[in-house]
Amino acid sequence: MLSDKEQLRDISSIGLKTVISELPPASTGSTMTANVCKKITAQLTGAIGKQEDVSVQLEALDILSDMLSRLGGTLYSFHSSILNCLLPQLTSPRLAVRKRAIIALGHLVLTCSGNIFSELTEHLLAELKKNESTSTTRTYIQCVAGISRQAGHRIGEHLEKIIPLIVQYCNVEDDELREYCFQAFESFVRRCPKEIDPHIPNVMGLCLKYITFDPNYNYDNEEEEEEEMMETENGEDEEQESDDEYSDDDDISWKVRRSAAKCLEAIVSSRHDLLQDFYKTLSPVLISRFKEREENVKADIFSAYISLLKQTLPIQSWLHASDASGKDDVPLTMLQNQVPKIVKALHKQLKEKSIKSRQGCFSLLTELANVLPGCLADHIPALVPGIVFSLADKSSSSNMRIDTLSFLHVLLCNHQPEVFHPHIKSLLPPVVTCIGDPFYKITSEALLVTQQLVKVIRPLDRSCTFDAKPYVKDLFAGTLKRLKAADIDQEVKERAISCMGQIIYNLGDHLSTDLQPTLKIFLERLKNEITRLTTVKALTLIASSPLKIDLRPILGEGFPILASFLRKNQRALKLSTLTALDILVKNYSDRGALNLMKQLTAPIYSSGSAGASVTLHKQAYYSVAKCVAALSLACPKEAPVMVNQFIQDVKNPKSSSAVKVLAFLSLAEMGRTTNLSAQRELKTVILEAFTSPSEEVKSAASYALGNISVGNLKEYLPFMLKEIGSQPKRQYLLLHSLKEVISSSPADGLKPYVEDIWALLFKHCECTEEGTRNVVAECLGKLTLVNPSELLPRLKKQLSSGSPHARSTVVTAIKFTIADQPQPIDALLKGCIGDFLKTLQDPDLNVRRVALAMFNSAAHNKPSLIRDLLNAVLPSLYNETKVRKELIREVEMGPFKHTVDDGLDVRKAAFECMYTLLESCLDRLDIYEYLNHVEDGLKDHYDIRMLTFIMLARLSTLCPNAVLQRLERLIEPLRATCSTKVKAGSVKQEFEKQDELKRSAMRAVAALLTIPEVEKSPVMAEFSSQIRSNPEMASLFESIQKDSASLPTSEAMDMS
Fold first, then answer.
1. Closest to 912 in 3D by CA, of 868, 869, 855
2. What is the pTM of this model?
3. Tens digit of each residue's pLDDT (9 = 90 or more) over 765-812
4. In angstroms, rounded to a whole number, what is the distance separating the alpha carbons of residues 648 and 880?
5. What count of other Cβ atoms lies within 10 Å of the Cβ of residue 77?
6. Count of CB atoms within 10 A of residue 555's CB?
7. Which of 458, 485, 1003, 1030 is least crowded, fewest Cβ atoms below 10 Å from its Cβ?
8. Which helix (H) or strand (E) segment is 899 a member of?
9. Residue of 977, 973, 930, 975 whose CA lies nearest to 954
């Protein structure tokens, strides 16, 4: 390789590279790798040092980089000599040499020891302070950025010294230097979020100053045609030895703007807490730069703004109910005020030649419409011409059209129909043309848009003056063509069916003779396995149309097909079919109801009689019962016959338990809406069933008693309360019935009985049986919703008095008052939930556990209740994740000793809460503190480890950077779990348990491997090669990869 002949040098260096890439990784324990490395390294560093011939140096640097990135750990003893050989290369006269030296240093810092890392940073700092020439300073800043990108978490402690230097260099008149400064900032922001925190305002100020930095261009005259620019990538080109002065044609200020925009995007996406400042300072500047003349820069500015919008997206609205307004709304209001400026800056660009900038505009507007539904209502006239232009423009690429259509779809979904009515004339034709487009992705998007347009042209839920008639023909013809085609893409088929369903639902009365043939096509699609589910949903929609579409011609053939779907083993299909039957029976019920009912219930009767075990899903019984009730409502004449039939079924000793369960559930569904008091023997029949040997029959009977009481509170409720008081044996089932009454009755109906029920429940809230206490708590919670202002304070009073049992019942009752829909009780709860959460410090273990369950429910269903209390609550929560020695006891079972950990359930509950907080309150957590506790959980009991593995997988998508910084500490427990061996001769459960644990750990590993740049971590690289080299682990890993087909399979494993 050191020979004088170029051919020989090339061949030998390719040979060496190949050898190195084929060497087995160090973790396989092969000594060969280590020997080869030792032989080559000294020669390579020698070759790099004697810089006679540049091409030799470049090759040697390349090979050294390869070795360091693959086998850095093996070269441990050479690290300091490698460092000494690389540092002088940073001042080499050749830029290419410097560049490769930086790459090699980047690979070195991944595996080198702390001392070597410090030596390197000290050297770089010293050189940066000297500032001998701009050219070397550039190189050193690039080097700092490179190191930070590779091993960001290590550079954290040196940032205090580095940042002031880089800030100082931003002000030097040298564009390229500035670009590197911003690249360094960007990598600090992404890599060391905690350490850069104090410098953020400073960095942001610089970015905002330089994003508008365009010294050679005057933007005053907006209409001027844009000058085409020559872009020369300075420094990339090896021939260019010296940095000569640049004239205007080689203006590279765009690079500065681009790197500033990228740095801003990094800040925006990592600092959710600064949103308000962003809207004050950053948003107006970005909007003013939408006019940027340089394509690439404009793309980055758009992408920074889209990041800002994504950060503003209100977290799922049902989570943060209306009472959370106030603080969270400020950014939204600020954004709302800036919408006119955004539209003004963008709408002209929608007609520009450049496809890239149009796509940028559309993706920004799409995000905007998602974040603030309705915000573009006043600007539709400005946007429509641009949309039409992009759809009709012949030169538009297919992606351009798809982006435009998907923006239009979001726009139509998020705004009121009236806004679009003046523009339908221009919008509709291009969309219909897109339905006919030969490219299936365009067709499929266009069908989605058309479905939405149909709702807009004629909204049936409000009066509307717009006349849809002229447009029906085009819409219908375009969609019909796609509906008829059999040889098209699956997604297009499904969307054509849904779209046609929508057309018939909204415009069916305009279709006249076309309607029946189209319905016949639906019948065909119903028979096809691939399209049947979508067709069932479309028919459900059509059947519920207020236009009363005439479906009778297809029902004769359709009903049996639908009934046959109930026997198919596909849950989604069964549930959709039941919904469809339900609607069809309600709206088209003049066909024999009893006949239909026999078809519905046949599978249950037949399976019972043959003595075969019933394989129906539990949900299926409830759904069939609901259909039966719908039938009885539709045909009141038949109802009494049905009720008698069911009562006879229950009394008949020969009936199978499945038949009895169905009978009780059907009676329950019918009794809820109709008064069944005419049936004298109903009460006795139900109470007798309470003693049935089958658990299913018992619970169905108690469900029936509850629901029948809802239909007739006056007669049944007092009877039930009396029974609960006098029958301790049946108490549990009767309380379940009471729960049904409280949850299903309207509040006014219950009001007269509230006091009696309350008193009765409080008698039982100290019951020793936990199951009973839970039902009592659920009843108390649901009852509190009937009259919150009076009953909530009563619950609060109970907290201070009473035994631990009573306290735990009260706390659980609060859990049942928290629902995921907005409710009148929310404002009251928000005021006092803090008092209930104080029970997290209760001396009684059980009370702490139910308090955690209540906290979890609040965090899951209504985070707004607890968001502001987190600072006070988190220490108590984290406290419960610790293993308590005093709660672990030994139990002797015959000759064996068995340890029992009483604190396990509480820890489990605490970790479940932590998991929930990830989804709903991530922005309020100090993620590093949080990770400390996750780390402890990874070494805890089996159940806790299972939970923390799932948390780890979630964390690696939510905050990958924090996880990367802690990787070393997180990998060890995973490795330990994956490599445990079960003792030979253990019981089968033990093997299954370990297997499940390993699978779960592997899933966490697979998730970690999806973090970008994770493979740069030496710990991870070593662990993944250990997985590959161990056949048992490798096969487990592969099966996990197959399960989660959603993860990119090949990339994740290919990490050599």
1. 855
2. 0.68
3. 888 888 889 999 999 999 988 888 888 888 888 888 778 888 899 999
4. 54
5. 11
6. 18
7. 485
8. strand 896-901
9. 930
